[in-house]
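hi! just following up on the protien thing from before. the input was this:
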Amino acid sequence: MNRFFLAAEYPRMASICGPILIVDDDRSSRELFSCVLAGAGYSTIEVESGEAALVQAGEVRPSLVWLDVHLPGVSGYEVCASFGSASASSCRSSSPPARGPSRTTASPG
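and the predicted 3d structure came back as:
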């Protein structure tokens, strides 16, 4: 099963879920994830830095954060650790480290 389209099987989930914060310094990656999630009915917020992620997470309290761990400045690990209840070690990578850029998801405290 393609995990990107899992939300399409559960349309009610998208309607009750808060926004998903997409944090990636690569514009095309942000746009791709946002397009896929929006197509499944989710609202998204895109930012390109760890600093902007911390600001947005504090303002909008997203239900989920799609986080690139290799960000310039404040890294994705530092962003994840700053969420309080989630530590950097509890962030789950959605792809094995050996396969290109690592993506991490965490739910902000």
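Residues 86-90, 95-102 have pLDDT under 50 and may be disordered.
DSSP finds four helices and five strands in the chain.
cheers
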